[in-house]
Design brief:
By secondary structure, the chain is mainly alpha-helical. It has one domain. Helix 1 crosses helix 4 and helix 6 crosses helix 7. The radius of gyration is 17 Å and the shape is globular.
């Protein structure tokens, strides 16, 4: 009990920010209109895509933003660890699974950030195809998701870092992209 007093606990803003990322990734339109598989992997991939957009925005914004983003990142993986345990993954397998999730996160960040930086929806759609639409390619849906993520990156770039560090994230409405001609 005494040792728990010295553990760092996530601040309310970090927790709120993480919850905003997850809530946006759980919008029903992604699973219905964008045809993202409504599976553990599909949900993980959408959380990762939104987290990548968020962390991309926070880079280069100074030490306070970097520390904040790192704490949100740590909270993300702490939540993944807890989720695996709740799903009944054995204690000996959880660290391996979390490591795989970390590798997946960084792989997806490496695949998504360059096309987002370049504003290249075709390259982003290809990366989404490789990571999210692995079972059944959905060219129109993945192109729409790519356009949505590009807009999310643009919107977050316009938002003050102070707001983003308080969990006040203005995401685009996914339904606006769900029927968009591509």
């Amino acid at each position: 009990m005494l040792f728990g007093l010295f553990r760092s606990r996530p601040r309310e803003e970090e927790h709120e920010t993480y919850c905003e990322i997850v809530a946006q990734a759980r919008q029903p339109a992604f699973y219905t209109d964008f045809l993202v598989p409504d599976t553990i992997d599909g949900r993980f991939d959408l959380i990762v895509a939104h987290a990548v957009i968020y962390f991309r925005r926070m880079r280069g914004e100074g030490k306070a933003a970097s520390t904040f983003a790192q704490n949100v990142f740590d909270l993300f993986f702490s939540d993944m660890d807890a989720s695996l345990r709740e799903m009944g993954v054995s204690d000996t397998r959880v660290p391996k699974k979390v490591k795989q999730m970390g590798e997946a996160f960084y792989g997806r960040a490496d695949a998504y950030i360059p096309p987002i930086d370049a504003g290249d929806s075709d390259a982003l759609a290809e990366a989404l195809d490789r990571n999210i639409y692995t079972e059944a390619p959905e060219q129109i849906a993945q192109k729409r998701l790519a356009l949505y993520l590009l807009e999310a990156g643009r919107l977050l770039a316009e938002q003050p870092v102070d707001d983003l560090m308080k969990g006040r994230i203005a995401w685009p409405d996914p339904e606006r992209f769900a029927k968009q001609p591509v």
